[in-house]
Amino acid sequence: MNNKKVYPFTAIVGQDDMKQAILIAAVDQSVGGVLVFGDRGTGKSTAVRALAQLLPKVPVVPGCVYNAAPEKGSCPCDVCSAFHKQDGKSRLAQLPVVDLPLGATEDRVVGALDLERALAHGEKAFEPGLLARANRGFLYIDEVNLLEDHLVDLLLDVAQSGENLVEREGLSVRHPARFVLVGSGNPEEGELRPQLLDRFGLSLDVKTPTDIEDRVEIIRRRDAFEQDPAAFCRKWARREGKIRKQILTARENLSSLEVSQAVMAFCARLCTALGTDGLRGELTLMRAGRALAALQGAKTVTESHIVAIAPMALRHRLRRNPLDDADAGVRVERALADLAAA
Amino acid sequence: MTPGGVDADELPGLIAAVLAVARHRIGGIVLTGPASPARDHWLDMLRQLMGAESVWKTVPINVTEDRLLGGLDLAATLSAGQLKTATGLLVEANEGVLRLAMAERQASTVTGAVCAALDDHEVRVARDGVIQQSDSRFVVVAEDESLGEDEAIDPRLRERLGLTWTLHISGNDGYLAPFDERDCQRARSHFDRVDVPATVMEKLTAVADAIGLMSPRPVLQALAASRALAALHDREQVNDDDVSTAALLVLAMRVPGMLERLQTPEPEQAPAQPPPPPPEAETADSSNDAESLRRDSQAAELAESVAESAAAVLPPELLAMLARSAARMRSKQQAGRAGATRPTATRGRPLTSMPGAPVGGKRLDILATLKAAAPLQRIRTSGRPEATNRLAVRSDDLRIRRFAEKSRTTTIFVVDASGSAAAQRLAETKGAIELLLQECYVRRDEVALVAFRKQSAELILSPTRSLVRAKRTLAALPGGGGTPLAAGLQMALKEAEAVRKKGTHPQVVLLSDARANIDLAGAPGRETANEHALAIAHQISAADIPVLSIDTGRRPGARSQALADALDAQYLPLPFADAASVSAAVMGAL
Q1: How far is it, in rounded angstroms, from Cα B107 to Cα B100?
Q2: Per the residue annotation, which of A220, A280, A315, A317 is the catalytic one?
Q3: Are B82 and A119 inside 8 Å of each other by CB?
C-alpha cells in the first residue's frame, strides 16, 4: 500500500485537548467518535492521520475484508465461516484509519457490485466499500461539514447500527461496520447539522496557538519533517513507542476499572444541570472518564477524571441559546463550578 | 527598488524562479488578472524555468469530478472485459504544474480536492467501483480573474498557495528574468542542502504575526522561499536578504493592496530614491509603527518583541505600509468580508446522479443509467440468447439527476442603527437575526445585515450561514447618529442584486421608524432625505425584491406607511419589537 511517512503524533506542538480526545477514542472506541472543529492550519488532519501509527495490533481473521475478530459470530462472510470450520489461526493486524476522500461516491462507501467479476465472469458478487475497511477502526472525514447530505445520513445510520445493509444492483448483503467516526472541519465554512453533532462522542474547538514560542516550534518541527521525513520519524520513534504502549495498557485495564455509584451520580447531576437531552451525554461522560483514568494508570475513576473530559463530552449537546453568547465549553465549565460550590 | 530590496521590474521573474525551485514546498501561486498577453508571458517564463520536461495540466471551469480525480474508465473496462481505471488530472499533473482556470469560480468540491492533494501529496479516490490512492506532487497556478469583492478565491486554497502576483494588463512585452533555466535546475538540486539558521523561523513567524497571519502554513512557505532564494544565489546558508525577500514575496504580498503599491510606477523620480515615507511614518519612528501592529489578544511585551523582530526583517517604510493595510484587513474581517465563502451551491450546478426513479419532477440521467446497467449486461443476458442485442435495463439502474440545491433564500436585514433608541433596537435585532440563523440550519438559507447610521450605510455581515461569524460581527455593531435611510436602502438593493446574481433569492427585512434625516450625499435635511429614500424604495420594488417593512417607531405613522407603499412591502408596525416577535414575523411573512 502506502509507506509514506506520516508526521508523528507526539511531535504535534500543544493542542493537548485534541490529543487527549483522540487517545481516549483509541482506548475506548465505544466513546463514539470525535469531532474536531477549528481554524485552518491547526493540525486537525495531521493529528488524525498520526493516530493510525499509534493504534495497537489486534487479532483478526486472515483474509477477511472486514478485519473481523476471530471470535465466532462476529462476521458472516465466507472467509470467516471457512476459518471457523477449519479452526484457523488468527493473525495480528493494526486497526485501520480509513479516509473518506472528497468526491467519494455512495457505491464505494457502502460497497457495490464487483465490476471486475461481473464483467469477466458474469458473476454477481459484492465488493466491499470503505465502511467494510473501516470496521473495528476509524473512519476519518475531513471537511465533514461539506459532505453531501445523503452520504451523511447514510454514515449516521451505519454508525448507529454498527451494521451495513446493502440492497442494490440485485445484491443483498449485510456486514459488520463498527467504526469510530472522526470528523474535522472549519466552522467558517458552515455549521454541522445538530443531528450529526449529537452522534459524536467528543467534540473540540481547536485554536491556532497564540504563543510565539509555540508557533516557532511548530514551524521548526514541521520544516524538519518536510526536509527529511524518515530521519524525523526516527527521532520521535521512542516517544511514539511509549504512547503506543500507554494505549495498549489502557485498553487492557479498561474492563477492570469500575465507575462508582457516586461518580455516576455526579455525571447525572452535571447533565441535569446543563439540560442535555437523552442518555448519550451521561454515557459518554462515564466512558470517556474511564478511558482517561485508564490512560493515566489510575486505580479508580474519580470526579476529577469526569471534570477533565466534561467540556469535550458535553459542549456539543447543549441546547443552543442564540442569545447567550458564551462558548458552549464555557457553559459546561460554569456548570462544573456551580456543582463544585453546591 | 521596492522596499524589500528587490528591483520591482524583476519581481515577476523572481517569483517564477522561486516557484520553479521550491515547487510543492511552496504550493503554488495565485495569479490575479484577466486572460491577457501579460499572463501568457508570465506562464511561458515559468514553463521555461520549470524545465521543458515538466508536465502542464489545466483544470477547466467545467471539469467533471471523474476527470479531476480519476476512476473507472467505462469504455476501456467494457471493451477489455476487466476493470480499467483512468487517471485524473490531479495525478497526471504529478511533478508538474496544475493550472486552475477561473480559480475563483471553481466549485468547492474541485478546490477541496486540490487542497487535499496539496496537503498529502497523494490523490485518494473512492468512486465508481474504484478505490485507489496515487502519489502526486504538483505546483498550482490558480488563475484568479475575480472582479470586485463579490468573488474571491476559496480561502482554503489561498492559504495553501505561497505566492501571489497581480498582472499588469497593459504595456508589457515580456519580463526580465533574473535567473534562467540552468540556475533553477542547479538551485533545485541544491535546495534540500541549504542550511537555515535557527533565528530565521523566529523572524518569519514574527512577520506573519505582525500581518495577522496566524496559520503556520504561510510561514513554512516563506521558509521554503528563503531556501529557494539562497539556492538560486548559490549560498550554503539562508542570509538576511533571503529572509527579507521571502517575507515580502510570501507574507507581505498576501496583504490586499500591497502589490498595487509596489507596482505603481513612481512618478518621474530618480530611480534610486526610496518611495516617499507615508505621512504617519514621517513623525513616528519605527517602534511607534510597531505599536500599531499590536493585537489586543496578545500580551504587550510579546507584541513588542514580535514587532521588533518584524522590523528587523522588513524595512520600516514597508512595515508602515503593512501596518495600515493589515488594519484595513482586520476591519474588513470584522465586517465579515475576509474569509467569506462562495456559496457551494448556486442554482442548477449538477451533482453526481443518484439511484431513484424519475418520478415527481425528477429527471432521468440517461448516461448514468446506462453506465449503471452496462457491467450487468452479461449477467442479465446469459442464457437468453434472444436478448443479447437488446440492452437490459432494470429499475435498479435508474439514475436521477440532482442539482446542487433548490435555489436558496438570502434574507438581508436593513437595520436603522441611528439615534438614542438604537441600543435597545439593535440588541433585539441581533437576537432576531440569530434566531433566524437557527432556522437556517434546517433551511440552509443565508442571512446578511446592512446597518445605517450617521452619514452612511455599511454591509456589516455579508451573506452567511455561519452562526460563528454572525455572532462575532454582530457583537461589534455600534449604534447612534443620524438616519441615512436612503443610503441603507441603496446598499440593500445593491446587495440584493449581488445575491440574485449568485442564483439565490433575496428578500429584505427593513427595521426602521422611517424618520430619514440624512440624504444620499450624506447631508442633513428631512425633505431631501425623505425624497431620496422614496426614490430608492421605488427602485427596489421595480427590481421585484420582496420586502418586509417593520416599523419600529414608538407611534406607527403615515411616513412609514408611505415608505412601505413605495417599497411595495408588507407593513408591520411593531413598536415594541423583541427578538422573538421579529423572528416570528419574518418567518411568517416571507
Answers
A1: 11
A2: A280
A3: yes
With cut-offs at 50, 70 and 90, classify the pLDDT of residue A120. confident
The answer to whether B539 touches B558, Cβ cutoff 8 Å, is no
- Per the structure block, which three cell numbers stand in for A147? 459532505
CB contact under 8 A, A103 and B113: yes
How many contacts, defined by CB atoms under 8 Å, are there between A and B? 178
Q: Label residue A16 exposed, middle or buried (CB < 10 Å: 0-12, 13-18, 19+).
A: exposed
Interface of B with A in 418-457 (CB under 8 A): 431, 434-435, 437-438, 441
Can you give the pLDDT at residue A202? Answer: 94
Give the closest residue to B549 by CA, choosing from B408, B410, B413.
Answer: B413
pLDDT in tens, B130-143: 888 899 999 999 99
Tell me, yes or no, if A146 comes closer than 8 A to chain B by beta carbon.
yes
Residues A292 and A309: their CA atoms lie apart, in Å, by 8
Q: How many CB atoms lie within 10 A of CB B2?
A: 20
Please answer whether residues B287 and B180 qualify as being in contact, where contact means their C-beta atoms are separated by less than 8 angstroms: no
Residue with cell 470584522: B334
What's the CA gap between B507 and B499, in Å, rounded?
A: 10
Parallel, antiparallel or unpaired: strands B547-551 and B570-573: parallel
3-state helix, strand, coil in chain A (%, to 5): 50, 15, 35
Question: CB distance A215–B216 less than 8 Å?
Answer: yes
Tell me how far apart the alpha carbons of residues B244 and B102 are, in angstroms, rounded to a whole number: 31
Measured between CA atoms, the residue of chain A closest to residue B437 is A322
Instruction: Report yes or no: A104 at the B interface, CB cutoff 8 Å.
Output: yes
For the residues A262-267, what does the mean pLDDT come to? 92
Q: Residue B277's pLDDT is what?
A: 37
Which chain A residues have a beta carbon less than 8 Å from that of B429? none
Cell readout for A23 is 487517545
The whole-angstrom distance between B25's CA and the closest CA on chain A is 8
C-alpha triplet A40, B114, B368: angle, nearest 5° = 125
- Determine whether the interchain pair A102/B128 forms a contact, defined as Cβ–Cβ distance below 8 Å: no
Would you state the pLDDT for residue A21? 95
Alpha helices in A296-327 (DSSP H): 303-314
Cα nearest neighbour of B220 on chain A: A219
Split at pLDDT 50, 70, 90, the class of A162 is confident
